[in-house]
Every structure is written in C-alpha cells, then in structure tokens.
Amino acid sequence: MYLESYFVESTAGTALNSRLVLRDYQGQDYYFEHADELTAFFFDELNRQAGGQATFIADRPGTVVHPLLLMKAKRAQRFLWLATNHVSSGQDPLTAPFLGIYAEALAKQNLKAWTGILVPTAAQTAALRQRLGKKAKLYTLPSTSDPVAPAIPFDRRQSGLVIAVGRTGEDKGTSALISAFATVHQTLPTARLKIYGYGGDHEAYQAQIEAAGLQGVVELADYVLDPAPAYDQAQLLVDASDSDNRPLAMGEALAHGLPVLSYDYSYGPRELIAAGVNGELVPNGDLAALTSQLIALLQAPDRLATLSQGAYARAADPKAEATLWANWQAALGID
Predict the structure, then answer these.
(1) What is the pTM of this model?
(2) pLDDT tens digit sequence for 314-331
(3) Per-residue pLDDT tens digits for 13-26
(4) Cβ atoms of 164 and 205 closer than 8 Å
(5) At 236, is the secondary structure helix, strand, or coil?
C-alpha cells in the first residue's frame, strides 16, 4: 500500500495537488480529488474497524470538520469541540458571522450531522442556544478539572514575580503585556514578568523588551513541559488575551493558589475568577486598567496572599473531577 500525489501548476505558478491515489489498499486502488476526501476515507475506515460505532471529536475544526461531514458512515458519533469564541473578538455573539473555522460546522444544514456540540462554558452555551435553536445538541463541558496542588505559603513565593502562560501572539496580548510592564517597572523596579509560551514572533518581542530597557525585567521563558513550578513560584498570573475559551492556564494557576488578573473577555474568566476572591478582572482591552491593577496588586502583598488563599479554597471541590467525567459520559453516551 502506498499513496501517490499528483500536482498541476496553479495560475499563481505554485504547485496544486490535483489528485491523490491510495494504491493497493486491501487489494483496491482509491482515488481522491483532495486531501479532505482522503481524510474522510481514513475516518470511515477507522469507524469500520471499530465496528461502525467510533467516536470522533473535532478539536481542530479548521482541518477536520469538512472531512467529518464527508464521511459515509451513518452510525459514527461526531462531536464538535469549541475551543474558542464562535465569533471574532468584540463582535456580537448572537448576530455576528461565525468565525471562519466554525462557519461550515455551525451552518444550519449541517447541525444534524453532529451527535453533539461540546462547549467549555455555560455563557457560550447560552449564546449558541439562542442562535442555533432548541434542537441543537449542546453540552457544557469544561475542558479540564484541575486538582488542587499542595498549598505554598505565600511568603515562599518570589516577591513581585508575575507570569503569563500560554501561546504568545498579538491576540494573546504579548506586546501589550511588555508595554504594560514598562510602566509597572517605573513604579516597582523589582517587579518581574516571565512569559511562558510559544507561537508569536519572539524576535520582535525580544527587540521590544530591549528597546524598552527591560532586559532582566521581562523574560521570554519559552515553552516548558511542566508549568507547575512556575505557578508555585509566582505571585500573580496575568492574561491579556482579547478572547479565549476557558483557558487551561487560568484553571491550572488557580489550582496552584496563584491569583489571576485578566481581561474580562468572553468566554471563561468570569466562570473562573471571582473578583476580590481569587483574582481580579478589568474591562477587555483596557490596557491602562490592566497596568493600574498590576501595580495595585503588586503593591499590596497582603491582598495577593488573601487572593491566593481564595484561589486554593475555590478550586478545592472534591466532586469536580467526578462531576466532569459524569458529564462527559452523558454527552458521549458512555455507560
């Protein structure tokens, strides 16, 4: 068995895949016009080998939604996972066009193809219910249940250390955070920011750090396999994203007793952060408010210590993991 790919020259002078041929698969040749057809064939074969009742979860809608919709299988379970907001940041969730990666998946004619649509937050579920109607099979399923880490006495955390964790990029507010910390540094010379993550233009961010004279103050710490030590050492996690969907780092940080300062974007922060209890929220996109709150929190270590205690307390739900798994079982039809 092997795969042949045929190419033609496009009008732009680039190579264009015109045909795919799967040779001698179980004694037959199969022809596909594009990669989505081949992927759908692959999914159908997985389903056939699973007795015709496989479960597929579209966690990368931009690449797998169309193949899943092309499948010939009738009994396979197909779920759509909404990892992000369903509209562009700042747009009306009830009327704005669906984000490109969800446009086909959430089109009215395709809703019946999904066994279920999995949504991390109740707020987004409510918005989608209004848009899609009562027949849409929506399930509110947080992405994780984070076990509470052993408590770290607040005086053992590194004074003035703020961290950001996750993919870097302009939609994640990386350059805005660096700008904010330039102001923070003027008031609090010993405060530091470590940015753990990958994805954005780190050369440009490093140049911004150097141009602002923030070497040794702001550090691009890159990706780490285990962020737990970072959560346990810092005094505050900051999130300057313009949108997300119940970010993993936010839940992890709170479970490590790390207070969170975040923009109040849709969806996630309000379901995780209780202002004045385990963190603080500022209006989405208001960099001045974020900067001011950063300074205020770092100037009040006793307040941060109280927020840390609140983070541990709110995360300590012994039933959370069992409840989450029960909800997943109900959505996926697992006995």
Answers:
(1) 0.88
(2) 888 777 788 888 888 888
(3) 898 888 999 999 99
(4) no
(5) strand
